[in-house]
Amino acid sequence: MSGTDPIDPNARREVSKAIASSGSAAVGRMIDAANSSVEKRRRNKEARAKREVEKKAAKEGQPPYLVRLAHLSANSLVHKSRIPQVLVLID
């Protein structure tokens, strides 16, 4: 860990002890909850990006059925997921 780690070392130690002392079922539930949270954030980011593209298309007068996602960076989660670069929006 670096010296700039914002997590209190005592809190980290307490969490590590709690995980170690809990059963495997509890650890599995924690992992499932974490995975679920990551997936939910990914879906929310994709939905937000889609809404922004639709809003931009409406503002610029582009046809709503075909919008290029050129404004998204290559590092965004939308591009890392399996969403194509072109969204087809059907009214």
Please characterize this protein's 3D structure:
The chain has helices at residues 9-21, 24-60, 77-80; strands spanning 66-68, 86-88. The protein has 91 residues and is mostly helical. The protein has one domain (9-88). The model is unreliable at 69-75, 77-81 and 83-91 (pLDDT under 50). Residues 46-59 have a biased composition (Basic and acidic residues). Residues 1-60 are annotated as: Disordered.
Total count of helical runs of at least 4 residues: 3
Q: Determine the structural class based on helices, strands and strand pairing.
A: mainly alpha
Terminal CA distance: 50 Å
The percent range for strand residues is: 5-15%
Biased composition (Basic and acidic residues): 46-59
Region (Disordered): 1-60
List the keywords.
91 residues, 7% strand, 3 helices, two-stranded antiparallel sheet, elongated, mainly alpha
Chain-wise SSE layout:
Layout: H1 9-21, H2 24-60, E1 66-68, H3 77-80, E2 86-88
Antiparallel strand pairs: 1-2
Biased composition (Basic and acidic residues): 46-59
Region (Disordered): 1-60
